Amino acid sequence: MQKQVTITLDEAVYDGLRRTVEQDDVSRFIEDLLRPYVLPEARGLSLEEGYRAMAADAVREREAREWGEGIAGDMADEAR
To answer: What is the pLDDT of residue 26?
Structure first.
């Protein structure tokens, strides 16, 4: 069941929201932002748990290492 809420926003924030989110998606956008703060079960992994999960992903780690080494190689080629 859905409930309707009236909120007050600073004009600049409102204008930015209107530029960023389509009219039909405003409620979904705000709900998605609020959900992890107001529903403990929606919070998901803690930051530490998230880092552990990423480190356990061998494919992601390999791709991240390759990307980092590529960036370092690009920097070494830069003229000073």
So the answer is: 93
